Amino acid sequence: DGGITQSPKYLFRKEGQNVTLSCEQNLNHDAMYWYRQDPGQGLRLIYYSQIVNDFQKGDIAEGYSVSREKKESFPLTVTSAQKNPTAFYLCASTWGRNQPQHFGDGTRLSIL
Amino acid sequence: KNQVEQSPQSLIILEGKNCTLQCNYTVSPFSNLRWYKQDTGRGPVSLTIMTFSENTKSNGRYTATLDADTKQSSLHITASQLSDSASYICVVSAVRTGGSYIPTFGRGTSLIVHP
Q1: pLDDT in tens, B29-42
Q2: Rounded to 5 degrees, what angle do the CA atoms B107, B108, B110 make?
């Protein structure tokens, strides 16, 4: 079955540590997105990529980094510069402007 | 600033009843409007997507409407079921320079269906 896989489902970060969240899709979609979801708030865009080897900052990119070396993969690194990383992180992909985004089931990141 | 406002924030209904959720937006230039259903602890799942020229779209018991003039949309759920309990999110996308489109998400309406 085609879809988006995020891993791990739960992740804990220590102070000063970088952690990387995985996002893999086998839908052959060009565009991929990373969002952060906090309680009571709408999803906020961290980074997006329209094509391999290219990505753009979203509204809250500070403290995060991404790479897009393969079409199928769009990993997100939460760096130690992100002072409030506790949140639910969602990855999505789509193949067209007026097509729905397909979401993974998220990674919940907490601070130890 | 692009914004999407949803109402009500939460809603409780009895199984079998109908309900309507509202979405107002100030996103421009408008590309499309989507409704998603998000179960607790899961990623959102697409229900409907409408472009500027469409004013209604159905998906089973879900019917979305769009009034591009007043920048309002609604999601009507018919004959609610217990499995409809979820958060319903309105998403409006704008077109950016270069052809990319950036979605703006509402905060969602939390729907609880009681037996």
Answers
A1: 888 999 999 999 99
A2: 135
